[in-house]
Amino acid sequence: MSNDQVIDLLKQAYNDEMETVMNYQALSIILDGIHAEEIKESLRQDVQEELGHAEQLGQRLKQLDSSPPGSEEFVAHQDTLQPPADTTDVASVIDGVLDAEEDAINTYRELVDAAEAANDPVSEDLAVTLLADEEAHRTEFRGFKKEYKGN
């Protein structure tokens, strides 16, 4: 694989992280109900972590003589992570988060492979680190899903 493919995946991951920040922020504000508090707090914490991921991806793009994409290049695709009409629908939010985390995990796995093939160990290392974070988020929300089914 080429350096161009690594850059394309870094940009895709950057956009995904920024979209996730936007959606997690909105969800952490609009959710209502007793069962929502733990989810809202987790989302608030994840906003900062996802923003940090975007920062790291942007810095890596700069190091590769590229740049993070601006808003004109942004295309939203997290359909299942949109704020629900029913602000107490915590289950749909959990499912949306799990979908977003799966997408991120898949992107970072692709980036690991592309960076390895392009002989870019720095991008590969970054992707592995961010992949671990996203897998931890997925595990946390899988736990929320199990717990929420009991309510």
Automatic annotation (TrEMBL):
Residues 1-151 form the Ferritin-like diiron domain. The lineage of its organism: Archaea, Methanobacteriati, Methanobacteriota, Stenosarchaea group, Halobacteria. This is Ferritin-like domain-containing protein. The keyword Iron applies. GO terms for biological process: intracellular iron ion homeostasis. The keyword Iron applies. Keywords: Iron, Iron storage. Residues 59-87 are annotated as: Disordered. It comes from the Archaea. Transmembrane segments: none annotated. Coiled coil: none annotated. It comes from Haloarchaeobius amylolyticus. InterPro entries: Ferritin-like (IPR012347), Ferritin-like_diiron (IPR009040), Ferritin-like_SF (IPR009078), Ferritin_DPS_dom (IPR008331). It holds the Pfam family Ferritin.
